[in-house]
Amino acid sequence: MSQQAQIRIGMAGWRYDEWRGTFYPEDLTQKRELEYASRQLNSLELNGTFYSTQRPKSFQSWSKETPDDFVFSIKGSQFITHVRKLENVETALANFLAQGMLSLGAKFGPILWQLPPNFSIDLKRLETFFKLLPRTHKQAAAYGRQRDEWMASRSWLEVEEDLPLHHAVEVRHKSFAVPEYISLLRENNIALVVADTVKWPCMMDTTADIVYCRLHGNEKLYPNGYTTDAIDLWARRVIAWSCGEEVSDGTRIHPDPGPKRDSRDVFVYFDDDNKVRAPFDAMSLSERIKEMNGE
């Protein structure tokens, strides 16, 4: 078996009323929730960037509140994915990249681009968008300099280390379950989001040098969160992916395996229908992976 890469496990967001008194201690102040969550798991999806442009001081604050080895995945702007639907987004992408995420440095993980349920496959539009995406921090800073003038006083374009920048796409329409889509992702080194849900296709093809999973669950299948068997199943899959292997116990769309890698970093985020279960399911998966690895 190949050398295992980094495995990042967390939740989609960290501020939910249902978590107070369940995941978060009753006496924990709200301003310390990120500090607490980041000591239980090693990654989180930053969802505020989906709804609106943030400020550099917010990213800097989030960075200070988390451990040195922590990583944030950043959710792409809904203006780009849901309003413009990936068309004519050059300036919007520059604004998004300029808002301050580069100040996270090594804590800046993949960017998640979540497409709306009414977005059916359009290979040409997708390819055009993929070509715009920067693949390093310096490329992101250079692109961010094309931001709107109103962003000038609320931008961060400094880069201390030119680290790789990864992208992942989550689709929610059955038309994407075709080999041509998988091939396009592979050609552009874009990660297919493996989405565990019954609402849209769960495709498990490897398409990039990372793997990105979003475990939404389902209230009918998992009314009390993910079962022990389900956690074991995902733990085995995550370990296999991290060692550069393919997973054969799920639906693969393309007849060919993905590009060979000795290892792949894996990012897994719980966004359960039953929100209160997400942090507990994430911790269960993290612990199970450690047990399987003999840690």
UniProtKB/TrEMBL annotation:
Pfam families: DUF72
PANTHER family: DUF72 DOMAIN-CONTAINING PROTEIN (PTHR30348:SF4), UNCHARACTERIZED PROTEIN YECE (PTHR30348)
Name the UniProt record assigns to this protein: DUF72 domain-containing protein
Source species: Telmatobacter sp. DSM 110680
Classification of source organism: Bacteria, Pseudomonadati, Acidobacteriota, Terriglobia, Terriglobales
